[in-house]
Amino acid sequence: MNIVNFNRKKTAFISYPEFSLASVDNKTYEFHGAANDIIKKLNSIGFLDINNTSREVAETYDISLNESIKETSKLINELKKLNIIENNENLQKFENIQINQKNIENNTDVSHWNYAKLNLIPIRCKLNLTWRCNQKCSFCYNGDRENPVNSHLLCTKIQELSTEEIDDYLGQMKDAGTFFISLIGGEPLLRKDLDQILNITDKYQFAIDIITNGTLLTPQKVAMLKEHNIQQVFIPFFGSTSEMHNKFVKTENAFEKAVKGLKLLKEAGIRVGARSFITRNNFFQWEEVREMIYNMGADYLPSVQVHKSCDGKVDELSLRVTNEQLMELKNKGISMYDGHECLVGLARVDILPDASLAPCPLMVTPYGNLREKKFKDIWLNSPQVKRLRKLVQLRMDASDYGLEKASRCAHDAIWDDGGIIKLSSEAARLIKAFRETPRSNSSGC
Known about the structure:
By secondary structure, this protein is of the alpha/beta class. The protein has a 9-stranded mixed sheet with strand order 13-12-11-10-9-8-14-15-16, covered by helices on one side. The chain has a 4-stranded antiparallel sheet with strand order 2-3-4-7. The chain contains 16 helices and 16 strands. The relative contact order is 0.11. The chain has 3 domains: 3-91; 112-393, Alpha-Beta Barrel (TIM Barrel); 396-436, no CATH class. GO terms for molecular function: catalytic activity; iron-sulfur cluster binding; metal ion binding.
């Protein structure tokens, strides 16, 4: 018999009524029709007999056995290339794969985001494991850690989510259709039970990424991370030198530790996204930062977004790059506008360290608390989420809100311009500056 096995070690998976999603190596693929039937069976029982499967496909879709064997074998070969399945053959990975659209749609298609939005499926969740952090970044959206005022950082004695609660709540999220999970903070590596938490995310087959400052990565912690199905780890950089980076994070030796942590991840074969935050004050180093990141083998992810912190203390106007600086970035082919929609209330949600549900890390007014009600009850029935959902939908339907503008942060619109329905003035500035530059596809912020 020709048997193939499902690669659970590297593949995140979820099935919806119309299609399935699998994510491997930080790429997400949709499966429809016969391909959907096959991948669901693979995930369910862990292996597949190609000959028997071909006969089942022929009967279900009323095609000849020869045609079914041909199409099934073609699909299996593509799944091998993606490392979603494995057998005794030597498999290869390919970064750019042309796939028959009848079988699989690769991650350049974003119909699963539209599906989630239209059906109110919280497909993306950011799990805030803690508000504690070992750095004091100058424009952290969580607020000023040195002098916390009007901020949830004052709540230093909150009862953080226990491992058992995380298991319970993530199980509820999986049942609701969540697939993408970001582990964030604060600094998530401060959680002593991170290994146990990742065992839970592995169990539910989530597509996981971790956002960390990188300073707490050790050979032991990286070895632990490698044992789990993590799609990518993100580390921020605020300059190409220790002096500049450490000035932003207000922590000694942070730059050296972050660089060391990134290199440890790369040596372990874990994909790393290095976020380069470009501001008015560190702009002169942006090219050196890009070269440094490329030389370390990480994905270069530039950003010029500076958000108002939840305590309102960040002077974002003094940090945001000037129009002249934006034009320089544009002229050198750097795009800062990725075109994704703000899907708060529709397809994304945050779990905060105190078990509250909130729209996002920036908009922390809670919908409700998971210690008091089940997730679906809050998500579908909370007056707060219903009101936000209505405003976000109005925002998308606004006359000045065309496809290109159907994006940007609702939090910024509130803080910058006093309302959620219209596009924020900062988003409009970025769109105007980068309108003609290439954009990445929707990622459903």
